Amino acid sequence: MLQPGVLSTLMPALAWAGEASWPSLLLLGLLAGLLALDDTALAQTWFSQPLPAGVVTGWFCGDPYSGLVLGLLIQMIKAGDLPVGQSFVGDGTIPVVAGTGAVVLGGYQIGLPWTDAIRETLALTGWSVLGVGLLGAFGHWLIQVERRAHVLWMLEGHLTLRDGLLGRIERLHFRCLATTFLRGLIFGILYLLILLRFWLPAFDRLPDRGVEAAAMLPLLLPGLGIGTLVDRFAGRRSWGWMIAGAAAAFGLARWVL
Amino acid sequence: MTGNDRPGLALRLRWQVFLRSLTLQASWNGQRMQNLGLLATMLPWLSQQSRNLNRDRLFCRRYYEFFNTNPYLSNYLIGGLIRLEDDQAAGRPTGLSATVFRDSLGRAFASLGDQLFWLGLQPTVAMGACLLAIVGWTQGVVVVVAGFALLQFVLRWVSLGRGYALGLDLVDLLADERWHRWIRISRRTAAGTIGLVSGALLARLGSNELVGGHVLPWIGLIVGWALPALLRRRLPGEGLLLLASLLAVVLAFAI
Questions:
Q1: What is the ipTM of this complex?
Q2: φ, ψ for residue B64 (rounded to 5)?
Q3: What predicted TM-score, i.e. pTM, was given to this entire model?
């Protein structure tokens, strides 16, 4: 049973009937804009990381669990990516906001493999994660375009080195901030519409083998993400810590379960 | 002057610089990286001085060159640079140009910060949040990330004042052994948290009753581990997802 969230409190007429209204899309777009700022431009509090972004969006829409499912799987697969300057890869923020919004507004059910999720639920989860991942790859290209624009605006700032007009520097810097926010707002809404109108409904037309493959994705992804992290952190001094942690968690989980 | 005879940054200026420093990365560009962000952060200091066109142009030129450092530790350096500007404006000899100070310390803080934050704290916080998500504690995810956010805001605020107070003595701060101890601890914590998550996942995924539920997590783990060695490069998350999709299609036909 979904609990009413911020979005549903603000817009009582939306969502639960499976309809996405423009005000709700706009509110989710604003959230995507804020989290896009946090991701690359402002404060970098890590609320824009896929898992917290998913949970916050899910909470915003009234279904934090859906956000947790999408966010966790994307977080695991992107755990080895370093969001540092030049090595920044992919976009794990705006697509997760859009994906969570689309799942909740569309009334879809997704779940994690270790819960009592049935095969179809897992397959829809895999299909949603794939959609979010493809948009994330496109988002990488968008971020690169934005950064090329930053170069042009930075070069424009050279005029201040000649005329001493300090206001120009402030305007250029603010323009960069505003562009990032608008990228989140516009593409958050666009991604949400793509997922809600085309990607998620296309799941019903998948052949049996496609559904089977989609159901395997949530089982493959966590291991793949952990494997990448193990490769990144593997070292003489790290092995002991990793093995001790794994043994403790495995034993505790088995004992509790 | 502060209690220990070190000069302090005026509160109003400190707030202005602190708030702008949060946007240091906003105008990141491939040519000079954080140069526009650094200049925008330093402008409140310049705005407090009387207008002098030639000096203002030189100030902008100084801070418009290539600059890149770790955003979480950047305020040590920004505080130090403001102190240097203050000293030079007051006619006190500094013995070092702001450009040399900025470049050498910027690189050092970038190296320390990247090891401490991106290779230590980031995976620890991310995996800690994942662990809480796996056990189903949704609020815990928000609490962990909010805890980190608060910590970094405090660090940025404190380091701005400390950077100003130390000035050129920031070099001594960099030589402190504790940086390397924290890096070691954070990397070991990250490794331990990765272990905790992998243990919890494998235990929970192993109980899955669906076809392949026992095997697929292990296949993912082995592929994820072996792939960088085979390809001689690490694939980004989206690349791994596409690869996993291909693998799933192949397995769907094979099983």
A1: 0.92
A2: -105, 10
A3: 0.92
